[in-house]
Amino acid sequence: MKVVILAGGRGTRISEETTNIPKPMVEVGGRPIIWHIMKTYSHFGFNDFIVCLGYKGYMIKEYFAHYLLHEGDVTIDLKKEEITASSMLSEPWKVTLVDTGLETMTGGRIKRIQKYVGGHPFMLTYGDGVSDVNIRELIRFHKKNAKIITLTAVQPSSRFGLLVFHNENRVKSFREKPRGEHAWINAGYFVVEPGIFEYLSGDGTVFENEPLERLAMEDEMCAFKHRGFWYPMDTLRDKIYLEDLWRTGKAPWKIG
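Given the sequence above, the corresponding structure tokens read:
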């Protein structure tokens, strides 16, 4: 199953970092946050990634094109004009980098990668949130409930969108970022059936608005309730918090 990562936004709330680089390339512990997300999926055996690029997407392309130069030891023979990179730190990843447009909304970006998922179920997440969610359990839950989409639900502060349930796991409605409410919210880490593309139209489609609202109303959405760690890197304060967790060896999402 392929993993789609939304990595095209401008990241305006962390502009201290994103003036010069795209948000998924902002580093935590010396590595881009997108690397941390990919390591989580890879830990569970999912190594085929599709990255939806937009703002400064060329920098993400360059990072993966020169991955061994960034991550491994390098021997440079100036006389022979040869560069040899150690493969000890290489990852078993296949990464498809797709330019999905500078101004394209989240739903439009997903629509643009339709041909790359080949009519099969796929996983989907945002390129700025780390978690210790068990991906295998998430997929089993999705298959058991047989809906078009399963999202991972968590319970952080009320600055995020609110999920309302029919019962234990069925989503009744979806509301983005209510004020003063502490409830289950959408954390990404989706599992998606190819039927999702019928809910997406042009580049202006905001995935979190009409498509998810329709899926909830039509009883085609389930929530995998994750009571473990999840944290988004929205602001500089968030980055500092994640950096501190990594530096002190307390990062719950760290693999190995």
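Residues 236-247 form the longest helix (12 residues). Try to locate this feature in the token string yourself.
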